[in-house]
């Protein structure tokens, strides 16, 4: 039997594969938020509004990149990198399809994002996440990110992390 394989490559932020993964990402994080705070799932019109208004153009060269992970050739996850200033990159929207979690894809995506940030000239990566995204916080800690004071005022951010590259 051939082992399952991961690949990570740059992808246009508006490609069909990226769009499908954005939808899966938004559905999961939105549902988690509303279930926790309002005991309901995201209404379809709310989800469509958020997906439609999202602007991912910052994840395009020369100051950003969207990375897409494939597992055995099938789109499986994303991570975005955007350069905030000459030394600082931001890690955005790390996501792996639920059925593929625990198979190394997230760590591979973050490592590829860090390498991408270095090629953009960054010496530090920052990110923010929410309290209910416990898996994400555990991943970032395991990969050497340290919790820091807030670096933005995003209304959904509850934890901020940084790592020297």
Word description of this protein:
This is GNAT family N-acetyltransferase. Keywords: Acyltransferase, Transferase. Residues 20-165 form the N-acetyltransferase domain. It is a single chain. The chain is built from 4 helices and 7 strands. The protein is α+β, with helices and mostly antiparallel strands and 165 residues long. It has one domain (6-164): Gcn5-related N-acetyltransferase (GNAT) (Aminopeptidase). The protein is globular. The model has no long low-confidence stretch (mean pLDDT 92).
Keywords:
alpha+beta, 30% strand, 165 residues, Aminopeptidase, seven-stranded mixed sheet, globular
Chart the SSEs and their pairings.
Layout: E1 6-10, H1 16-38, H2 44-53, E2 64-71, E3 74-85, E4 88-96, H3 105-119, E5 124-129, H4 134-142, E6 146-148, E7 159-164
Parallel strand pairs: 4-5
Antiparallel strand pairs: 1-2, 2-3, 3-4, 5-7, 6-7
Short description:
The chain is of the alpha+beta class. The protein is built from four helices and seven strands; from the N terminus they run βααβββαβαββ.
The computed structural class is: alpha+beta
Strand runs, count: 7
Helical amount among residues, as a percent range? 25-40%
Mind describing the biggest β-sheet? 7 strands, mixed
Strand residues, percent = 25-35%
Q: In the CATH hierarchy, what is the superfamily?
A: Gcn5-related N-acetyltransferase (GNAT)
| Overall form | globular
Named CATH topology: Aminopeptidase
Reading side by side through the largest sheet, how are the strands ordered? 1-2-3-4-5-7-6
Number of helices: 4
Number of domains: 1
Element-level helix/strand string: EHHEEEHEHEE
Distance between the termini: 37 Å
> From the 3D coordinates, which CATH architecture would you assign?
3-Layer(aba) Sandwich
